[in-house]
Amino acid sequence: MTAPALSPLASLLDLLFPRTCGGCGAGPPGSGGWCPWCAESTAGPWSVGVPGAGRVAVAGRYRGPLRRAVLAYKERGRRDLAADLAGLLVAPLAVVLPVAAGRAPPRIRLVPVPSRPAAARARGGDHVLRLCRALEPRLAAAGLPASTAPLLALDRRARDSVGLDGAARAANLAAALYPAGRGRAGRGRRPPPDPGAPVVLVDDVVTTGATLRACRRALRGLGCEPVGSVLLADATTPGRKQ
């Protein structure tokens, strides 16, 4: 299936009326943020092997329409894409949840991977936190009650991770990641929000896995053991086929 061609007119309409498809630019204003063609082209969910990160599942590869939609949402002001992108995380979340046959699902705690304060300000808010909150009603509709728990924060001095290799990302996060609401110099443990509730990390793209590993370590310091992580896209293996 061939993607609809992007045109200058579609790009202009997207700026003026940002409701054309975030993946391919198709459709008149008001047609929706994720068209049927782009939905079909997103081949997930699938599991991704990330050493030290536990169970990791994604909606698709970081390429084509999904990559364009993630960038439009994250960097180009397309906040209207939050609900459509959140919908892509329902199936990956089912992949990482432990199976409990015959039991009512417990309330899931969605923990967003935090953004740098400067990046969040530039984007009009933390885009992963927004994604988690848009995911809550999607999960409720699927019979999976969930609530967002922003337990982690990044120091304002944290570097932008773009261009850093795995070792540099790990060092950057080790110095900058801390429990939210306690301040950078906070000490001691804070109990998890609901002991026994499954905790799931949420982020946009997995690249080296350094961020997921660092967040898992930080959550363990709070007494939380994440059951897994869900992300929109996998950028760990450039040559991978869908």
Protein traits:
8 strands; 15% strand; 242 residues; 9 helices; alpha/beta; globular; six-stranded mixed β-sheet
Q: Structural class of the helix and strand makeup?
A: alpha/beta
Numbering strands along the chain, what is their spatial order in the largest sheet?
A: 1-2-8-7-3-4
Q: Please give the number of β-strands.
A: 8
The amount of helix comes to 25-40%
- Rg calc: 18 Å
User: Any idea what the shape is?
Assistant: globular
User: Termini, distance in Å?
Assistant: 14 Å
Q: What is the chains' assembly state? A: single chain
Mean pLDDT over the full residue set: 81
- Strand content is 15-25%
N-to-C SSE series?
A: HHEEHHHEHHEEHEEHE
Give me the number of helical elements: 9
**Poorly predicted sequence stretches spanning 5 or more consecutive residues:** 1-6, 184-189
Largest sheet: 6 strands, mixed
